[in-house]
Amino acid sequence: MARATQLPCDGNGICMICKNKPSPDAILTCNTCATPWHVTCLPSSTRPPTLADALCWDCPDCSLTDQPPPSIAPAKTGNSDELVVAIRAIESDESLTELEKARRRQELVSGGGARSSDDDGGNLKNKEGINGDNDFLAILDGNINCSICMQLPERPVTTTCGHNFCLKCFQKWVAQGKRTCAICRNRIPLTMASQPRINSALAIAIRMAKMDHKSNSTGGIPKVYHFVHNQNRPDKAYTTERAKKAGKANACSGKIFVTVPPDHFGPILAENDPLRKQGVLVGETWEDRMECRQWGAHLPHMAGIAGQSKYGAQSVALSGGYIDDEDHGEWFLYTGSGGRDLSGNKRTNKAQSSDQKFEKLNEALRLSCRKGYPVRVVRSHKEKRSSYAPEAGIRYDGIYRIEKCWRKNGKQGHKVCRYLFVRCDNDPAPWTSEIHGDCPRPLPAIEELKSAIDITERQGSPSWDYDEVKGCWMWRKPPPCSRKQADGGNIVEGKKRRPMKKLSAREKLLKGLVL
Length: 515
What we know:
Blueprint (H helix, E strand, L loop, with lengths): L26 E3 L6 E3 L12 H5 L22 H15 L5 H12 L46 E3 L5 E3 H9 L14 H5 L5 H19 L22 H6 L38 E2 L2 H6 L10 E4 L3 E7 L7 E2 L3 E5 L25 H11 L2 E7 L13 E16 L5 E9 L29 E5 L6 E4 L4 E4 L29 H10 L1
Parallel strand pairs: 7-10
Antiparallel strand pairs: 1-2, 3-4, 5-11, 6-7, 8-9, 9-12, 10-11, 11-12, 11-13, 14-15
Helix pairs in contact: 2-3
């Protein structure tokens, strides 16, 4: 990597050393990585001697030979004198290895400040990050920093070669036409360059390190995030031989582990989880939709919307079913159901053949928009166009609220129902390393609203809202009463059953012959 005195221009064409935007004549482009460099800010030893050499010039990052470090000229200011004295003190310290001396020199030049001589540079407990206040990097390796901005990666993306980037840094890097890693120059796969996936495991690791650092400083107990694996579950869907022959669509749904009714709104709390006593946590993953149903996050096996037209919608699933969907993590644009010909053997038909209307499940979503009900959201790995989808299985991503809904002409020429979902959960999202949940945020600007029809917005205050005093999201109005009784896997006393029709002797005989 280039030294602190050898930095290129950023994505906006501004030199990272002099902070000015050089003219095109003052920019030198690397022949290997196509990165722009400001000629004036380059050391004379790295500049090409002739114009012909400039055409095949390699930047300091791509150069195979290490350039000698620039000499530090003593200045008249006291700060520069102190820097020289500190560097000489490090060089004269015989108790340090060459690696530790190099690390401390780098910290001094980058503004990290000098450490005392009795501070062991190899001790991970005293290891600091780029910002100086990231002590929690002691739990992790400093190499997890973003390879471009050199900060802790926000919504980290990990390349196939093992280097980490912020999602925005990676997208900016690829948008410049670069298809190689900024560190090792290995080629980035085309599928990853076009649609990167967030490394949720790394994001959670950073979050847990932050929480551990906070608990050590405040004396609090860190919140534990659990992940339930298949081998730890007593019952599982898709167990009978008959179901296996017919496929998972006809499988047994298995035992329901939570004690919430099917039309339950909002998060599933620990009091409704008699098995684990923790509820359904944000970031929890399951193998498939059948297993997701067992924990009550999203009940339908196939449908993307769970709800009733006169009662509201409880949950939705993002699985890439409609090409009009747009996923931005904390908010997304969701497309309603219907408008397809699914008769006969066309169960997988994705072509729109008619307009969608606000009816049935679409009306359930619109009712939740008007009332401000919380909606549980799960994301599937089948959503290939989203950077926020899990790499495998189904993942619970928390509570969202529908802020607006409308109809517009879809990409296939027919009108579709559209819904603006905004995240409003007390727990952080699986793709972020933040330790706090969501705060009220301004609504994003939606361009398609200019040509939309049948626009619906909430008039009154929402039922699920942020309490400024308590600092959390909660029910500000009483939640709707359930119309169905809860079933925690056992038969509930007093549960209504369909009355069996009494058959005559003739009907019983005929039924026996048919069977």
